[in-house]
Amino acid sequence: MAGLEARLAAVETRVIEQSQRFDAQFTMSEERFDRLERTIDTRFAQVDARFAQVDARFAQVDARFVQVDARFERLENRMDRFDGRLDRLDDKMSRQFVWLVGIQITVLVTVVGTMAAVVFMRA
């Protein structure tokens, strides 16, 4: 029986050694996983910060587009006012043209009438 007890003691010793090795390797694996988790957390924090910067930049671009839209709106209003002024100027010039043609026709009729009167008076 002493041989059996010695063998059992040797097996217990080997199991204890294996258990200690497993515990050491498990502890090292936990430390490695913890480091890896911290690294991943750091990188995700960096990515989140970068996305925050990109979002801020897009907000600036959106604000700039709003400003450009407002400027185009003001320009469009000015162009509408300018179109109105051109329409009024066109109407005024049309009226003046009608008057000018009317005066020219009146002068032509007067000249022709005067010449006809002169010709008929000599005859």
Blueprint of the fold:
Layout: H1 2-122
Descriptive report:
With 123 residues, this protein is mainly α. The mean pLDDT is 92.
Return the string of H and E elements. H
Head-to-tail CA distance between termini: 175 Å
Give the overall shape.
rod-shaped
> Mean of residue pLDDT?
92
Low-confidence stretches: none
Portion in helices: over 70%
Largest sheet: none
Structural class: mainly alpha
Give the total of beta strands. 0
User: In percent, how much strand structure appears in the residues?
Assistant: under 5%
Total of DSSP H or I helical runs spanning 4+ residues: 1
Q: Compute the gyration radius: what is it?
A: 52 Å
Q: What attributes does this structure have?
A:
123 residues; mainly alpha; 1 helix
Please give a quick description of this structure:
The chain is mostly helical and 123 residues long. It has one helix and no strands.
